[in-house]
Write a structure and sequence with these properties.
The protein has helices spanning about 10-15, 40-45, 50-55, 165-170, 175-195, 250-260, 310-315, 340-345, 400-405; strands spanning about 1-5, 20, 25-35, 70, 80-85, 90-95, 100, 105-110, 130-135, 145-155, 160, 200-205, 210-215, 220-230, 240-245, 265, 270-275, 280-285, 285-290, 300-305, 320-325, 330-335, 360, 375, 385, 390-395, 400. The N and C termini lie far apart (about 55 Å). It has 9 helices and 27 strands. The chain is of the alpha+beta class and about 425 residues long. It folds into 4 domains: about 1-110, no CATH class; about 130-230, no CATH class; about 235-290, no CATH class; about 300-405, no CATH class.
Length: about 425
């Protein structure tokens, strides 16, 4: 049996930025898992994209596996999660490449989780907070954050990468995305394609964030290689979509958790949306498409509110009144193009409404959205009362009566 600890919400963003957290001070217990295997216990507190696509689970805590006892609703387990083995009383930190034992009082950081950060090295005149050099100087007058490169020798059809540069690079990179690009894409690419390159020829690869180039000049036995990355973009400010390529699904999912931790399902079941309305589309197990928010004004996150108590509806039907928002509770967020979909998507039709595309469950309730409930449009632009003939605009603070939502027919009380 394992206790599962997550970094608390207050410190999690610091962790993603490379800062250290302390176990257990900055952690909280989120689950107990009755499973003797640490990997299976870890996977029981996360939902993969493929699981969600098949409709098996929406999140790990609202529809938990039989062996999971939910202590606190939390995000998916991720690197930095700590698993306490209740049999051996040992603590295990989940890292990028597996797990390792830690002790109370230990610091937990991206580096401790084997996502490599390093002290920034600079050349004169460059901003020491932003510039890194591994093996080669940065190009002059160009806004690159990180660079790596070396001179390689081709011996008997094999590429020999400089030992000094190789050791320098294994110290890591200020950006883990760049580290993975060089390690997983660039080095194998150099070793495979380098011997085939002709003199005075060059070639390059690009994964959506990082670029690498390889060239031969005067000699058939010498390769010059470079890899460069700009700042990781502010996704909501991009002008055009970007396609990102990864080595495997695990790397893709880690990237999504780091860069799009606030994502929820969009109105179609093959994509996510962030709080900044950036669309994240897993194209396949190794590719993501990131689309900036260039959608119509009506598209966005709709907030759905139900009356918080059944007695409130009884009061309304008897001629009384209720107040918005005091007598309501938020039950769902729905990402979609229009008000009517937000209404329909939170109604039971052929399945429970919280399983519909684009719906993020906030408060479990058995009822569908119906007359007397309230829907707030994206960015709080407008607020609507659901009526028997459609919708009626209301103010941010409103008194609700039965006459407001029974508009199609004259109501006659019993």
């Amino acid at each position: 049996m394992f206790n599962v600890y997550h970094i608390n919400e207050e410190r999690f963003r610091d962790f993603l930025q490379g800062k250290a957290c302390v176990f257990p001070d900055d952690f909280e217990l989120v689950a107990r898992v009755d499973n003797g295997d640490i990997e299976q216990a870890y996977l029981a507190t996360k939902v993969s994209f493929d699981e969600a696509m098949r409709g098996k689970r929406i999140n790990w805590w609202s529809d938990p596996l039989p062996e999971v006892q939910v202590v606190k609703k939390s995000r998916n387990s991720f690197i930095g999660t700590v698993m306490e083995d209740l049999v051996s009383t040992r603590f295990h930190l989940i890292t990028l490449h597996g797990e390792k034992e830690i002790y109370p009082g230990d610091e937990v950081s991206m580096k401790a989780c084997e996502v490599i950060f390093t002290e920034v090295k600079t050349i004169e005149g460059q901003d020491p907070r932003r510039k890194l050099v591994c093996g080669i100087p940065l190009p002059e007058n160009q806004n690159y954050v990180s660079a790596w490169g070396c001179e390689c020798s081709i011996v008997d059809g094999w590429v020999d990468i400089s030992k000094d540069v190789r050791e320098d690079f294994t110290e890591g990179s200020v950006l883990p995305e760049f580290f993975h690009f060089v390690k997983v894409f660039v080095r194998p690419w150099i070793e495979k394609e380098g011997p085939k390159l002709k003199r005075y020829q060059n070639t390059s690869i690009y994964n959506g964030l990082c670029r690498a180039m390889m060239m031969k000049k005067e000699s058939d036995t010498v390769l010059y290689t470079t890899a460069l990355i700009h700042d990781v973009p502010k996704w909501a400010e991009m002008k055009t979509p970007a396609s990102l390529v990864f080595q495997n699904q695990k790397e893709r999912d880690i990237f999504m958790d780091v860069h799009f931790s606030d994502r929820t399902w969009a109105s179609t079941p093959d994509r996510f949306i962030t709080n900044e309305f950036v669309m994240v589309i897993p194209v396949d197990r190794k590719m993501l498409k990131v689309v900036p928010p260039t959608e119509p004004e009506a598209r966005g996150m709709y907030q759905v509110y139900h009356l918080s108590r059944t007695e409130h509806m009884k009061l309304l039907l008897e001629g009384g009144e209720v107040k918005f928002p005091e007598d309501y509770q938020k039950v769902a967020q729905v990402f979609c193009d229009d008000l009517s979909y937000a209404h329909t998507a939170t109604c039971h039709i052929d399945q429970p409404w919280w399983r519909n595309s684009g719906v993020h469950l906030i408060k479990m309730t058995k009822k569908s959205t119906s007359v007397g409930d309230v829907i707030m449009a994206p960015r709080g632009m407008k607020i609507y009362l659901v009526t028997d003939d459609g919708y009626m605009g209301i103010e941010q603070r409103s008194i609700i009566t039965r006459e407001m939502f029974f508009r199609k027919r004259q109501y006659s009380g019993g």
